[in-house]
Amino acid sequence: VLIAIGRDACTRNIGLETIGVKINEKNGKVPVNDEEQTNVPYVYAIGDILDGKLELTPVAIQAGRLLAQRLYGGSSRKCDYINVPTTVFTPLEYGSCGFPEEKAIEEYGKQNLEVYHSLFWPLEWTVPGRDNNTCYAKIICNKQDNNRVIGLHVLGPNAGEVTQGFAAAIKCGLTKELLDETIGIHPTCAEVFTTMDITKASGQDITQKGC
């Protein structure tokens, strides 16, 4: 049983209409520009209340910190809402950073992307004999930008830990070539990202026979 608990945007009774701040009438959320500024120049919004942004506490903290630095510290750094690592802590964890494949296609065009993927078998699953083709990893690369990794996805044990580490590399401009040049730690789940050589476009079999 999956229970999804959402958050309501309680913006309709706090007087925003009095000062002219626009909200999305469908969900009550507040549209902002890339500096968290609403349509009223002196009003800013951060966190879960933002229309079209991620509802994640670390994102709100980072956005608030950067906003304060821009307003009062002379900074120009903006919050990156794309390369955000996050994890669904289900029994088999799912982690991601960057674009989902569908969004990447919308943004860059399918012809400009290369998607590498693989199933993998965690070492700790070999003793109990668990299915060796349940865990999955995928990276989305922008062919027009030196095969830069713009999306990373992993389904497997400790996906949160794996995703957090690769998120820093993605922020630094990780490319497929750099992943290929990285020596993997054997036998780890994260190693799969250093050995990927099958693209989705090829249609080749990605099932595994060992860890």
TrEMBL record:
Molecular function in Gene Ontology: flavin adenine dinucleotide binding; glutathione-disulfide reductase (NADPH) activity
Alphabetical keyword list: Disulfide bond, FAD, Flavoprotein, NADP, Oxidoreductase, Redox-active center
Positions of the FAD/NAD(P)-binding domain: 1-64
Example of a GO cellular component annotation carried by this entry: cytosol
Domain called Pyridine nucleotide-disulphide oxidoreductase dimerisation: residue spans: 84-196
Pfam annotation, one family: Pyr_redox_2
Gene3D superfamilies per the UniProt record, alphabetical: 3.30.390.30, FAD/NAD(P)-binding domain
Superkingdom assignment: Eukaryota
GO biological process entries: cell redox homeostasis; cellular response to oxidative stress; glutathione metabolic process
Similarity comment: Belongs to the class-I pyridine nucleotide-disulfide oxidoreductase family.
Protein name: TRXR3 reductase
Organism name: Climacteris rufus (rufous treecreeper)
